[in-house]
Amino acid sequence: MQNINDFTAKTVDFKHGERNVFLHLLTQCNLACRHCYINPAQHGTNILPKDTALDWLRLFARPDRASNLVLLGGEPTLHPDLAEIIRAAKALRYAVTVDSNGFLFHDFLQQVQPDELDFLSFSLDGPDAAVNDAIRGEGVFAVCTENLRKAVSLGFRTSLICTVSALNIEHLHEMPALLAELGVRRFFIQVIGLRGKSAVAGANSLQVEPARWLELVPKTARQAARLGIHVTFPKVFLDKGETFSCAGQVAENYFVFPNGRVYRCPLCEDYPIHSLRIENGQLMQQDGLNEDRFFSLRIPEGCVMNKLLQPDTIAYLPNGQPAHRISCCMLKQEIRC
Q1: Residue 298 maps to a domain
Q2: Are 125 and 136 in contact (CB under 8 A)?
């Protein structure tokens, strides 16, 4: 019998020198999710050509050690050369994850073998069609779960991402049973970000109140862990006495878009304040006041980018102090089984 402490969430500290590359191969998607963070005005609308994608993979690869690569969209399986890109990435010592909405275009499960991919991750935002499809579109739940079952049966290592918002948090506790039934053994709970569609006027209604997050998310994570599922979820709020740490100063995280913009902080992606750009096959530092100039600042609210870009998410006590200190958005907690 497992000890109760086995189901206690542990903060995953940033690792010095860890390299994570989030490569958006395109921004097109077959869905129109209510919380989509893609912003075509900032991220472009083109599909990254295969040869360019391979050049960029070489640009971020490190021959002396493995790097983590997440291939994204839009919907990455819409890219006709995704299978070749995955194989090239593995040859460059990347640990490769594909984040998909579950439609798996171009016969993706037949184009890639399970041992060629570290994880195939599916996005699902509700335990049934009524909840999920109100967020992601009619018929999405049925297609996603059917293809997820196929992937599991073929031997792919699968994970599931659920983006938590006011639209689905009351149903989050139903997700672990669904994952167990589907055969998924890794669960990522995401907090909704005020980016893309979620950043438009009036979208604050999608945000989850801090008390509800703290009450329901850790509880659901423990519930999933008891079913043998490895759970990861954002720290979001720092505990009293915890020191704020910014991933931009410790780990190497690169959020790469088809127009050549490279961000170090995902909160900044709605704005032209990227710290890097790819130009003529080289990774170039941007001049001026960009995201990386703020990473070293220390404020009572915690994350300075959160304070600058989405200050409405911070509540204050009568004495003027923040009610909660916001962690770096890349800081995670996990429960391993």
Answers
A1: no
A2: yes
